[in-house]
């Protein structure tokens, strides 16, 4: 999953394929920070891209009934902007920071970048009703997206949970 994408938050830096550390209150800070800087250095300058951020572990890894909670969905991102970390385009789902519920263990926050190839991307009315339990696979199939151009993830848990605790699915290494 960790292929060619950087996700940077202020003070923490690039957290691609990492656990967000508990020190310096980083876990609490990312729940309040604005959208991260997402960079895909391999982007084609004259192409357009789509960025998806999801939590496949909502509400917990042991019971992901709201799997693929949609945290961010942006289309029509110019390749030059993607290279420089300026996520500007049509925001179909505004950014929502990582907010894992207390006592649910670690959550994976996954980022995917797809080449848009001139397609007009939209959400169906029922997809706009809720961010949770999003059928991401159906969405990707509808627009004939196969493999992402780049992807990454990071793991974090609720900042009120002890780093030693891992109820609800635990702190396994990123998968």
From TrEMBL:
The lineage of its organism: Eukaryota, Metazoa, Chordata, Craniata, Vertebrata. CDD domains: PEBP_euk (cd00866). Belongs to the phosphatidylethanolamine-binding protein family. Residues 153-175 are annotated as: Disordered. Coiled coil: none annotated. Residues 153-165 have a biased composition (Polar residues). The gene is PEBP4. Pfam families: PBP. InterPro entries: PEBP (IPR008914), PEBP-like_sf (IPR036610), PEBP_euk (IPR035810), Phosphatidylethanolamine-bd_CS (IPR001858). This is Phosphatidylethanolamine binding protein 4. It comes from the Eukaryota.
């Amino acid at each position: 999953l960790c292929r060619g994408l950087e996700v940077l938050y202020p003070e923490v830096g690039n957290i691609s394929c990492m656990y967000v550390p508990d020190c310096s209150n980083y876990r609490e800070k990312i729940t309040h920070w604005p959208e991260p800087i997402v960079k895909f250095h391999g982007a084609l300058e004259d192409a357009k891209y789509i960025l998806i951020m999801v939590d496949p572990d909502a509400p917990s890894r042991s019971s992901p009934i709201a799997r693929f909670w949609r945290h961010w969905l942006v289309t029509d991102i110019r390749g030059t902007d993607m290279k420089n970390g300026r996520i500007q385009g049509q925001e179909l789902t505004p950014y929502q920071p990582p907010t894992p519920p207390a006592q649910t263990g670690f959550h994976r926050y996954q980022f995917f970048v797809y080449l848009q190839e001139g397609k007009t991307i939209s959400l169906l009315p029922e997809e706009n009703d809720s961010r949770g339990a999003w059928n991401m696979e159906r969405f990707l199939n509808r627009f004939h997206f196969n493999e992402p151009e780049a992807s990454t993830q990071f793991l974090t848990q609720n900042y009120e949970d002890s780093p030693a605790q891992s109820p609800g699915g635990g702190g396994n290494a990123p998968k």
